[in-house]
Structures are given as structure tokens and as C-alpha cells.
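Q: Please design a sequence for this.
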């Protein structure tokens, strides 16, 4: 088996708030928003919006009603810590950073070298409206 990702599903607190953000964010990083599909699965107390892509699909899901008021925290056991997307250059990291900042993402770190991850590790970190953390990274010598 090749260790390839088929799809990723992220649970967000508020679908009405998250969907417009993810429409913009995923388009910035190369998803075709016209390929978006959604479903309500009553028996699972679930509303899901899936963004289809040839590389992998990305979905946002509603929380179960019982968990709707829980606080999002990436350090909880079983929680999603963060997801890093690979850029093709430092310039692309810079360009994506500006676009991501413009859609209202919470910037954790603007583009810079993170020596604790290696001498070429150039990245920007940001959070969505729920505080879910993402990264755009380029990790090659220039």
C-alpha cells in the first residue's frame, strides 16, 4: 500500500460560519469549489460538506448535538492538532499567506523560517474561525 490520503474530515462548531470560510480557503489552495457536495445524514446527527479534489477530498462536518458547545482545542486527546499544506516555493507561501489573511483567518505566525523544524523550513501558521490550526510550508533549500 502507498501511504496516500484519500480524504480528511474536520468537525467544526458552526457549519453556517465555517462553510463560507472553507469555500474561500480551499479555493485559495487549489480546490475547485464547483465540485463541492453536501449531505445531511439524520441517523448520524451529521451535516457534511465535502470538497472533492483529484489529490484528496476535504470535508467539514457538524458536531453531534451533544458536543455543539464543546471548546475546540488541538491538544485534547484524539483531537486534530494541525494540517500542513506543501507549497511549491517560499514565494508561494508568501502569496498564499496574503490571500489567507484577507479571508479572515487568524494568523498565528506570518511567513518565516522555523529553525526548530530545520534550516529550510519556511512556513506560515493560521487558524480558521473555530481555532483549527493550519500551515502552508516550503521545506527545500533556495
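A: Design:
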Amino acid at each position: 500500500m502507498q501511504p496516500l490520503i484519500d480524504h480528511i474530515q474536520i468537525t467544526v462548531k458552526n457549519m453556517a460560519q465555517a462553510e463560507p470560510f472553507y469555500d474561500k480557503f480551499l479555493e485559495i489552495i487549489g480546490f475547485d469549489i464547483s465540485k463541492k457536495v453536501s449531505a445531511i445524514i439524520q441517523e448520524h446527527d451529521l451535516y457534511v460538506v465535502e470538497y472533492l479534489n483529484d489529490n484528496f477530498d476535504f470535508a467539514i462536518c457538524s458536531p453531534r448535538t451533544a458536543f455543539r458547545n464543546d471548546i475546540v482545542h488541538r491538544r485534547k486527546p484524539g483531537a486534530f492538532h494541525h494540517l500542513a499544506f506543501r507549497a511549491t516555493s517560499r514565494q508561494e507561501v508568501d502569496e498564499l499567506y496574503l490571500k489567507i489573511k484577507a479571508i479572515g483567518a487568524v494568523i498565528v505566525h506570518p511567513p518565516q523560517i522555523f529553525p526548530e523544524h530545520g534550516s529550510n523550513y519556511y512556513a506560515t501558521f493560521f487558524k480558521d474561525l473555530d481555532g483549527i490550526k493550519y500551515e502552508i510550508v516550503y521545506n527545500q533549500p533556495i
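Q: Thanks. Anything notable?
A: The first helix runs from residue 15 to 28. The mean pLDDT is 96.
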